Amino acid sequence: MSATTIKIQKDTKSQIDQFREHRNESYDDVIKKLLFIVKNLKKEPELSKDTIKAIEAARERIRKGRFVSEEVAKQRLGF
After folding, report:
1. Residues 16, 31 contacting (CB under 8 angstroms)
2. pLDDT by residue, tens only, the chain of 79 residues
3. Is residue 3 part of a domain?
4. Could you count the other beta carbons within 10 Å of the beta carbon of residue 30?
5. Could you tell me which residues come within 8 angstroms of residue 6 by beta carbon, excluding any fewer than 6 positions away?
6. What is the residue range of 17's domain?
7. Separation CA 45–CA 62 (nearest Å)
8. Of 9, 14, 20, 46, which is most buried, counting CB atoms within 10 Å of its CB?
9. What's residue 39's pLDDT?
10. pLDDT of 20
11. Residues 53 and 75 occupy one common structural domain
């Protein structure tokens, strides 16, 4: 495996250091870990067709005023 040198600002290095889990963890490992996290967080969760239909139905019920208010729900639940 070949290596390269990159130039970063001191404040960037300090921020990367905060993600090191142990003193001997390489910067390459830290950067790979950060890239993995970013790649996986950017993915939008995929909803099933049934879930999308249920959300749309719930929004329609709310638009039509067919819902229970928080106050009524508390009364029903004994709060």
Report:
1. yes
2. 789 999 999 999 999 999 999 989 999 999 999 999 888 886 777 889 999 999 999 999 999 999 999 999 999 999 9
3. no
4. 16
5. none
6. 10-41
7. 24
8. 20
9. 86
10. 93
11. yes
The sign one gets for the Cα dihedral 78, 67, 70, 72 is negative
Residue type, 48: S
Distance separating the N- and C-terminal Cα atoms of the chain: 64
Both structure tokens of 12:
């960037």
The DSSP string of 8-75 is --HHHHHHHHTT-SSTT--HHHHHHHHHHHHHHHSSPPPPPHHHHHHHHHHHHHHHTT-S--HHHHHH
Dihedral angle, C-alpha 57, 63, 68, 70, nearest 10 °: 110
**How many angstroms separate the CA atoms of 3 and 71, rounded?**
63
